[in-house]
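Risk register update: the risk of archive-format incompatibility is retired. Evidence:
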Amino acid sequence: MGAFIIITIILMPDYQKEVRSQGDLEYLEELAGKTQAMLDQTEEGSRKTLEALLAAQTRHQQLQAEEEVVSSELETLNAQQQARNDQPPPPPPSPVVTPEKKGSNQVTFRFLGLKTDKTRILFMVDMNKYLSGYESLVRRTVIRGLESLPAGYEFAILGFQQQDEGPKYYRWPADGSLAKMSDRKRTEATDFLQGLSKRFEGSSSLVSAFEQAFQSSADAIILISDGLPNPAFNRNLSGGPLIRNITVANSGGKEIHAVTVGDYFKYRGTVEFMESLARANGGAFLALAE
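Archived output:
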């Protein structure tokens, strides 16, 4: 019995250490379990937070896109209202021929409100891609001009556009001469205009087109355009500098009348450009919409 007691006393410290170690291990395992649970909860929370953040960013982008659309529409409406206040479009009158006596400053030809005493007329038609939606309006405008010309007047048509390979022209008569107005010539010219349908493409080079027009024997030029020439194809000129370039090149003093067609309310500068171009070259200005 004494020996057992002595052995027990000797082994007691080791037993206590083992018990303590077992308790520490259980505690550590419990702590590890709690830690893993917290980590799992943290990862799940992070994932949900990231998903919420991505959803918020997507919604923010959608709202920005919607704001840009609304802003664009508001700018268009403001421009239209401003254009109405500044330059109300004149109602297109019926074609009228006035057989007045020819002579200096005597009106012998009226076309949609434009008037001139010149008897040799060149219709200059802008065929850029932005006017493709207004082909019918452009064609009808020129045809009304043809219907207004009395027999014996001389006229021609010059269609122009800027393509990748350079400027392109559509002429009637094909040799660039002027034709004397008659029923047959009017019909031929109308058929030519019908053939220009679906050919509106590219941009506009007014500089190059007027170089061609100034070589014509016509005394008056009627430009039908949207009034939005691309500076890249006009020697990097726009607005006033482009008007001055064309006016200086007009050494023969040909009248230039400007007819703006299309959605000119959207771009106020088109009206100002076309009106100033006509005024600088002794012509008149007119704006037409559908």
